[in-house]
Amino acid sequence: MSVLSDLEARSGSTCELCTGTNNLEVFEVEPVTISGVDSSILACETCRTQILDPEQMDANHWRCLNDSMWSEYDSVKVVAWRMLSRLKSEGWPKDLLDMIYLEPEALDWAKATGEGMAEADKIIHIDVNGVILENGDSVVLIKDLKIKGSSQVAKQGTAVRRISLDRENAEFIEGKVGPTLTVIITKYVKKI
């Protein structure tokens, strides 16, 4: 079965956040370490648009999180936590945030994008040209880099797709160079 059909079966063919049914699609919850059902949710167009573009937020739409935050699936709870964190200035989401429970690894996943942190506390990853890097971006190496623990050299111009950001250090990102997952210093990459 495909991820889409598994998620449709899991959710009863409704959005796992608001129970809407318009334009349902698989939405991967960043950062994605292993693609599949466990790192994805089935989300409607309205939810996807507002998750990806905070400027499009309609706080009343997210009152649905009062129900979906109790999902048995971590991916749904992670998105619920992030949206409640984004909306906590509205008042009512703060009460729900106080009630939601995530296991420690799920909470780390929820916090991985910096949602819920004060703007001054967020770690910002910047490439060689000063462009801000995000989880899932693609970058290209600007110089040859030796990969530690191997005889492999990543050549200048090598594309690294779907990077992950180090939450504790703004100078490091992770990405696959060939089959090897490696840590790369941000001053040696530029965003594609």
From TrEMBL:
Q: Which GO terms describe its molecular function?
A: hydrolase activity
List, alphabetically, the InterPro entries matched. Answer: PhnaA_N_proteobac (IPR013991), YjdM_C (IPR013988)
Output the SMART domains linked to this UniProt entry.
Answer: PhnA_Zn_Ribbon (SM00782)
Q: What is this protein called?
A: Phosphonoacetate hydrolase
Q: Which UniProt keywords apply?
A: Hydrolase
User: Residue ranges of the PhnA protein N-terminal proteobacterial domain?
Assistant: 6-52
Gene3D superfamilies (alphabetical) = SH3 Domains
